[in-house]
Fold this sequence. Notes:
The structure is a homodimer. Chain A is an alpha/beta fold and about 220 residues long. The first copy, chain A, is built from 9 helices and 11 strands.
Amino acid sequence: MKIAVLGTGMVGETIASKLVALGHEVKMGSRSANNEKAAAWVKKAGAKASQGTFADASAFGELLFNCTLGTGSIEALEAAGKQNLKGKILIDTSNPLDFSKGMPPGLFTPSNDSLGERIQRAFPELKVVKSLNTINANVMVEPSRIPGEHAVFVSGNDAEAKRQVKQLLTEGFGWKQVVDLGDITTSRGTESYLMLWLRLWGALGTPDFNISIVKKG
Amino acid sequence: MKIAVLGTGMVGETIASKLVALGHEVKMGSRSANNEKAAAWVKKAGAKASQGTFADASAFGELLFNCTLGTGSIEALEAAGKQNLKGKILIDTSNPLDFSKGMPPGLFTPSNDSLGERIQRAFPELKVVKSLNTINANVMVEPSRIPGEHAVFVSGNDAEAKRQVKQLLTEGFGWKQVVDLGDITTSRGTESYLMLWLRLWGALGTPDFNISIVKKG
């Protein structure tokens, strides 16, 4: 499958490399066609890897990953161009982290909104599925780094889009506990959870952790 | 031990009953000395149970539980009177849920503040330990309702206060996975998690669930 990964940071590179390893053709998108980090990744990742602008990558991909920083996600998708987004699934891994008031960051969305919703509202031609935003990049693509079953969430308005994303998460990335929270407004839940995730990282001393959902039998 | 439980709702009643069952003397506090819900609880809970105003209960308790609604917590503690709070541990189970904009609720604190911090700032004479605010009342006092190990969190500035609260949580309530997140600012993490908890409740169809923290071995 042809997949666009928007963003050249740790999350973008980790997901893009995993997708190539799974046999997909991946174009990494960034602001410029000759981004240095994207070029370094393409060189390392081999023949199925390529790079381009946000628009190039989005035109190429049948499926899109948003791995840009939350502060730049809307702008990146605007640069991608609506004609290149139309009818496509966007797996949105971003978080609305606000570093402007110091560390640890807060959220730049209020608790009755979310970045997932903002993206869906701004780009109704996309089928946005919020996912993978609650774990560290390494865990996203290799959940077996952490023992036992633990959770990844999906939020989105389109049932068929969520079905396809769940299939990639389970069969591709190896996730076992995929929890469908509901429509895109449930992104508020997973994005707010980052506020706990950041403190757990501090308390546990490693980002290699996750939560498992346990319920009364 | 003499314990005050401030609040007559489901959380207050459940915690107060558990504390009586553990052999403690418990005074349930509310706005009025003859609150009907408190009276019904006292009648049911027996000789170690009593009721009074927020001030009566706080004067009585060597340890205090805040089980009031988040919107009324500061006011309840003001009514309790600073002289009745001085030097005492307050286990704060409240959440800053904002029901004013419809369901599900948001939070009335921004992500760079928390109700736990607001209480600690407003009442520096208290040793505030935020805890138990991430689970349903029944699970708070009976974690074995849910199979396996799962997490309860503590946040607070006073190490000795947290040690005593942890002891009550483990030896009294039966908790096995008590995670110390750090100082009272880490309340932001557990209070924000409520935004995910509410959606998990919807997705799972029961409030009898919790999260377990799993990390790389």
